Amino acid sequence: MRVTVFDYGAGNLHSLVKAIAGFGIDPVVEADPVAATDTDLLVLPGVGAFGPAAARLAPGRDAIRSALLGGLPCLGICLGLQLLFDGSDEGPGLGLGVVPGRVTRIAAERLPQIGWNTIEDATDPAVAAAGIRYGYYANTFVGRAADPGSVTSWSRYEGDRFPATVRVARTLGVQFHPEKSSSPGLALIRAFLAEVAR
């Protein structure tokens, strides 16, 4: 299986690449958004801020959006999930618009949210297969889906309930970091890789 991790040009992708490599896959790190669609699985990592990341995606936005809506599997992690939405209050630029809705600030006094949080009401097959009930978060913003049916699990922080995972077609977005969520998080990555391989 060919796995491509898109590089926004911000931050260290080491832990994510290492997690994927642990399943016998040698992922390619690609900075060209158009070239990133020539793969079996596209991974949008959770590194950086929305505005600069959207700018890096912009030259290939239409190609990536068409590929995802056409069935290319994608795993969007933290910022990667947020880029699946139409846009963000965090910064300028367009998201991919695969998940209709907008990214907004968490309604909480203590931000960012950093640490473990529960994952509730899971209906996503990969989340269920992994049995993950807690995820490691590092975020201030969350995606708010226009269609609640695209939300496949939830989390809550200081009373604000927000999507922990979203799913459209073969695209799975997770607001937490599975690569930093111990063995259950790795089990989620494994479950999604197995789903893509079928």
Structure description:
The chain is of the alpha/beta class. The protein is built from six helices and twelve strands. It has a seven-stranded mixed β-sheet. The chain has a three-stranded mixed β-sheet with strand order 5-6-9, with no helix packed on it. A two-stranded antiparallel ribbon has the order 7-8. A hairpin with a 2-residue loop joins strand 10 and strand 11. The longest helix is centred in the C-terminal third of the chain and has 16 residues. The chain is globular. The termini are close together.
Please describe the structure with a list of short key phrases separated by commas or semicolons.
6 helices; alpha/beta; 7-stranded mixed beta sheet; about 200 residues; 3-stranded mixed beta sheet; single chain
Radius of gyration: 15 Å
The run of helices and strands is EHEEHHEHEEEHEEEEEH
Lateral strand order in the biggest sheet:
2-1-3-4-12-11-10
Strand content: 25-35%
Give the mean pLDDT. 97
Give the number of helices.
6
Shape: globular
Helix content: 25-40%
Number of strand elements: 12
> Distance between termini?
11 Å
Task: List the uncertain runs.
Answer: none
Going by helix content, strand content and strand pairing, the class is: alpha/beta
Main β-sheet: number of strands, strand sense, barrel status? 7 strands, mixed
